[in-house]
Write a sequence for this structure.
């Protein structure tokens, strides 16, 4: 339906010729803005509701209870995926989990997936790449967090966590009161947070879509195939490295990447790039630096980075 | 009233700080508002989601930035 509104508005009302570069770019921008706006509102509300019923304190109690029988890493990683991510919450979460008696490896599982699979990235992925790629992205993010957290947990890295963290972690975590509000009582605050997220990222998304629209309209279809397809073996690590300083604009970068894929950039390279944009952020590293010694931080980011590169190659090979 | 806004400088932490100050102006003139950005100090309150609001030593809000009106109700009630 949105497609026909965009068609009617641009080609019909405004009279822009359908075959022109300008018409194609405008159509992409209008249609994608409507679709992604809608998806962002929906997904942020859904995630907000999940989070309202499953607050991180409850998740912590559940993982620490010892009832999961070996699936702790998977559960922690899965919760990381549904928890809204803010880089300033990464240390409080890190310490809070350790404080609740959760092992370092399980805590890292959560910490890896939490930024990687977040509500904004998911909404943009569904809108721009469709369900299949979104599921593939989310599933690989969760598996990555599970496996790497498990591996890092076996490396005895606990001594590289700053001492003050362990000191605080020794104080027992406080019991939290259960939230007994009904669905309709929760909705206003969930909705306000969700709309806050959407309006906050809107300028970046619009800018990204505008650039994407330009690429769609004006760049020839096979333009990037010459430079970035299977022919260049360094494309994946190069794009992952380029992605690290781009965190602040993650929501603006995904639409641009989609249009690059449409013009011949391999999907695996693109997914690796986007995973690195959201998963390996400098602001998060700066935050975590206060709680982790360089050795742990470097091991943590290094393993995640290398794994993202490996995933990129895998997807390029399989897809 | 002793009000502390816990946050490390992200966008929603700044929003909460601004709204709290606005709410205080509307309600209690004798409240002190302090923004705490030091991680170690923040962690002593045991919150896991930023930003958080602490009123007289009690954590009232965590991981959210309520509206000015809700904050005013919270502070006066």
């Amino acid at each position: 339906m949105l497609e026909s509104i965009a068609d009617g508005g641009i080609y019909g009302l405004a009279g822009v010729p359908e075959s022109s570069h300008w018409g194609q770019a405008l159509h992409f921008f209008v249609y994608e803005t409507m679709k992604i706006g809608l998806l962002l509102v929906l997904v942020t509300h859904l995630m907000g509701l999940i989070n309202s019923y499953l607050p991180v304190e409850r998740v912590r109690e559940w993982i620490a209870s010892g009832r999961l029988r070996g699936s702790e890493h998977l559960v922690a990683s899965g919760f990381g995926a549904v928890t809204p991510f803010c880089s300033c919450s990464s240390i409080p979460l890190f310490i809070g989990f350790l404080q609740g008696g959760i092992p370092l490896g399980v805590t890292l599982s959560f910490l890896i997936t939490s930024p990687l699979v977040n509500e904004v990235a998911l909404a943009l992925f569904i809108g721009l790449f469709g369900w299949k790629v979104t599921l593939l992205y989310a599933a690989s993010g969760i598996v990555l967090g599970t496996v790497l957290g498990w591996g890092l947990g076996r490396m005895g890295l606990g001594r590289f966590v700053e001492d003050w963290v362990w000191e605080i972690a020794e104080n027992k975590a406080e019991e939290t009161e259960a939230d007994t509000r009904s669905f309709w009582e929760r909705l206003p605050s969930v909705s306000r947070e969700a709309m806050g997220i959407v309006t906050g990222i809107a300028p970046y998304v619009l800018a990204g879509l505008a650039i994407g629209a330009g690429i769609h309209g004006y760049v020839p279809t096979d333009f990037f195939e010459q430079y970035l397809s299977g022919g260049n073996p360094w494309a994946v690590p190069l794009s992952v490295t380029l992605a690290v300083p781009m965190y602040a604009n993650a929501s603006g970068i995904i639409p641009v990447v989609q249009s690059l894929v449409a013009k011949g950039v391999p999907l695996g390279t693109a997914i690796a790039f986007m995973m690195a944009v959201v998963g390996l952020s400098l602001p998060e590293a700066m935050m975590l630096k206060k709680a982790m010694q360089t050795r742990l931080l470097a091991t943590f980011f290094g393993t995640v980075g290398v794994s993202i590169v490996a995933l990129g190659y895998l997807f390029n090979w399989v897809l | 009233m002793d009000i502390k806004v816990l946050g490390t400088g992200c966008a929603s932490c700044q929003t909460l700080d601004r709204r709290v100050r606005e709410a205080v102006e509307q309600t209690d003139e004798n409240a002190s508002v302090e923004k705490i950005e030091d991680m170690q100090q923040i962690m002593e309150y045991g919150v896991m989601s930023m930003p958080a609001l602490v009123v007289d030593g009690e954590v009232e809000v965590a991981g959210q930035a309520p509206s000015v009106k809700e904050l005013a109700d919270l502070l006066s009630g």
About this structure: Chain B has one domain: 2-76.
